[in-house]
Amino acid sequence: MQRGLGDLDELYQEVLLDHYRNPRHTDRLDTPTSEVDAINPFCGDEIHMQIGMEDNTLSEISVTGQGCSISQAAGSLLTEIVRGKSSAELRELRETFRAMMTGEELSEEQQDLLDDSLALQGVRRFPVRIKCALLSWTALIDALDKVAPGK
Known about the structure:
About 45% of the residues lie in helices and about 15% in strands. By secondary structure, it is of the alpha+beta class. It has one domain: Sufe protein. Chain: A (Alpha-Beta Complex). A 3-stranded antiparallel β-sheet has the order 1-2-3, with helices on one face. α1 crosses α2, α2 crosses α5 and α3 runs antiparallel to α5. The chain is globular. The N and C termini lie far apart (about 45 Å). The N terminus is likely disordered.
């Protein structure tokens, strides 16, 4: 059975709703390497992020917050794809996500890296909501900058 575009949109909506209703990796870390708060001043979305780094690799993450379903689902989706990545890989992944959100063409390899976060690509039809989807990625880079600036 072949899925149409409408079916794909429905599948993506289900993924987003699942991550919004059942966010992943929300338990506070006992000894975070870095901790940040990110706020979208335009809409009031908030993300609180803690990361644990070992040997320049993200070993654990916690994301909590409040705000719209897009910002909260994006934070949960982010936690599913960042663990085990180096600081450089995380920065590259953030740029890949940003490229997707601005409508740039992604390679199959880049799409594979984003995994279920591809569900957020529909948000780009609503430019004012792109910042909601990027908020957790901004928090991640801010947290990384505290422990590994620009690396």
